[in-house]
Amino acid sequence: MDKSTHETASPTSDRATREAFYARIGADNLAPLWEQLHNLVTKTPRSDCQPAHWSYRKVRPYLTEATELITAEEAERRVLVLENPGLRGKAAITTSLYAGLQAILPGEVARAHRHSQSALRLILEGSGAYTSVNGEKTIMQRGDFVTTPSWTWHDHGNDSDAPMIWLDGLDVQLVGILDASFAESSSSDRQALQRPVGDSILRYGNGMAPVDWQPPPNRASPLFCYPYERTRASLLGMREGGAPDPHHGYKLRYVDPLTGGSPMPTMGAYAQLLPKDFASAPYRCSSGTVFTVLEGQVRVVLDDRSFEAQPNDVFVIPSWAAHRLVAQEQAVLFSFSDRPVQEVLGLWRESRD
Ligand code: GTQ
């Protein structure tokens, strides 16, 4: 073999020559990998998503203003989007997920539609409004976790005498990156009801299932309401039964009772109880995670900042950001993330320091 092929090549071009080359090939839709390799294949996640905190006390008056500005009917969904400060203009709370606060006044209806995006709701304020999913109405109370899986018809209405506010979580960005968004509006405001209130809890929520049940094509749980009463009873019961996990306190994930998987394939949802004076050990995982406080108060401590989260506040921890949770009083947190997606793709990681 020619000896010259083994010699180390010396740099042959200056910056200007290279830039000129990049410009020429750029005109043919080509780009040099070597200029961006280290930004594409990073040693650890490098997210534009920033840690952020929305105080309910601050946001709540804006929701009242929004109800004076536009009707639920005109808006279709009257929502203030929680935009991550590192991702402004993208309607994203993390790189993969969307979150918003939806308000619906007594007598209002948010008309029926369906879309390929999966949605979850966590009820923050009010009681007695409903969401109908695929022909079944669920009456919602504070703390309830409700799903509207991909391509299910859903409409919301408020027959109570007070405003109802909930946190919406959707996989908008995930579906967007896959170019898999489809949506349809119903010709009627309210979908026809096919089953009585509570039917899915009776059929799927008691450790049993209809004898010939088959998994649906959207791969979502047929149970779509998880009442807070039950979640809370489980968390309080666990507290009596043993020591908390040093990183999570007492933490449960919501499941599809028929598969053990997440309620919807694209988003995992969690509830955790932090006992009074609990201070978690540092933790991080590769799923950016959105939290809301259901009870108590939590101090969230990151490397370069910390904040105090009160009931109904929302906060977000980006992928791979180490954090600790400190509870001065007993606290209950709800959270959601893209963890099931990363797990099924073999990507999910955590680090427990
Ligand atoms: O309630 O159907 O926050 O379709 C964003 C998109 C809520 C909903 C949102 C939606 C909904």
Task: Outline the structure in words.
The chain has one domain (52-352): Sandwich (Jelly Rolls), CATH 2.60.120. The longest helix has 14 residues, at 56-69. The chain is an alpha+beta fold and 353 residues long. The chain has a six-stranded antiparallel sheet. It has a six-stranded antiparallel sheet with strand order 2-3-10-5-8-12. Strands 7-6-9-4-11 form a five-stranded antiparallel sheet. It is built from eight helices and 22 strands. A hairpin with a 3-residue loop joins strand 17 and strand 18. 2,5-dihydroxybenzoic acid binds at residues 77, 79, 100, 102, 115, 119, 154, 168, 170.
* Low-confidence spans: none
- Mean pLDDT across every amino acid position: 95
Query: What is the CATH T-level topology?
Result: Jelly Rolls
Q: In the CATH classification, which architecture applies?
A: Sandwich
Largest β-sheet summary: 6 strands, antiparallel
Instruction: Specify the number of helices.
Output: 8
CATH superfamily heading: Jelly Rolls
* Percent in helix: 10-25%
Shape: globular
**H and E string:** HHEHHEEEEEEEEEHEHEHEEEEEEEEEHE
CATH class: Mainly Beta
Strand order of the largest sheet: 1-19-16-21-14-13
Distance between the termini: 52 Å
Compute the CA-based radius of gyration.
Answer: 24 Å
- Total discrete domains: 1
